[in-house]
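Q: What residues go here?
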């Protein structure tokens, strides 16, 4: 959502500040990635599921959609872990890369329900693209919602409630909306290509609406 972008000065300062204390997650192909989220199509709305549903999980790993559940995710991510994002395709009208594949890896931890499942996302911008992924070469990404609690339609913890009720961003970690939401409405009522519903911002430059998504978690080596 364009009006929510941080001012340019923050974007210029951020890398210097962040780089001084965050270690990059060490990723190798033999890591034991556990599925957290999956969307193959529009068969499940995601954005208007309840707090209870997001807490307990829904769908199945073998099916077209899946959400592990925040309680289980918290159990696996009380300490720093690696969170991997995968996205296939772009449904935004006029997309230059309608068949592209993108991925990203963050350092991730998740608080208990008493914190409203406050998440921590870290990413060291100096990490080579081969390790950090090619969805995170700008700063408009999940790290903008570091330290943010979870919101659902029946439990909005975002000071800007429209991020849930109008922009249909989820079931997600929202504070003045977000720079990405993988649980947003598949076909957002307000349209594609504009940071509503299911979206991601590539290179900090343009919005994509992935056709398929997956999220994975693994212990950080
Ligand atoms: C959830 O939203 C979808 C549209 O994205 C709508 O078709 C569906 O009826 C809604 N479900 C509930 C329970 O409100
Ligand atoms: C991202 O990386 C994957 C695998 O490393 C590659 O298949 C894909 O084409 C890359 N996408 C972009 C936009 O560079
Ligand atoms: C958690 O969310 C509830 C409902 O939105 C709110 O009343 C409560 O103050 C929140 N707790 C914390 C620790 O933020």
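A:
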């Amino acid at each position: 959502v364009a009006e929510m972008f941080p001012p340019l000065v923050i974007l210029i300062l951020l890398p210097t500040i962040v780089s001084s204390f965050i270690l990059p997650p060490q990723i190798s192909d033999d890591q034991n990635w556990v599925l957290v989220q999956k969307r193959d199509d529009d068969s499940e709305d995601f954005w208007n599921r309840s707090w209870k549903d997001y807490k307990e999980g829904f769908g199945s790993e073998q099916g077209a959609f899946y959400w592990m559940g925040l309680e289980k995710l918290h159990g696996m991510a009380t300490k720093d872990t690696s969170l991997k994002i995968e996205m296939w395709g772009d449904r935004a009208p006029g997309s230059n890369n309608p068949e592209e594949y993108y991925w990203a890896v963050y350092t991730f931890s998740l608080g208990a329900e008493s914190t409203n499942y406050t998440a921590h996302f870290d990413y060291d911008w100096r990490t080579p693209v081969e390790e950090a992924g090619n969805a995170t070469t700008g700063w408009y990404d999940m790290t903008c919602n570091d330290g943010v609690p979870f919101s659902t339609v029946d439990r909005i913890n975002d000071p800007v409630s429209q991020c849930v009720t109008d922009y249909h961003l989820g079931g997600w970690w929202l504070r003045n909306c977000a720079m990405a939401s993988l649980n947003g409405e598949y076909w957002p009522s307000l349209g594609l290509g504009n940071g509503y519903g299911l979206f991601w911002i590539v290179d900090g430059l343009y919005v994509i609406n992935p056709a398929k998504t997956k999220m994975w978690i693994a212990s950080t080596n």
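A: Context that may help when evaluating the design: The chain has one domain: 32-219. The two ends are 35 Å apart (CA to CA).
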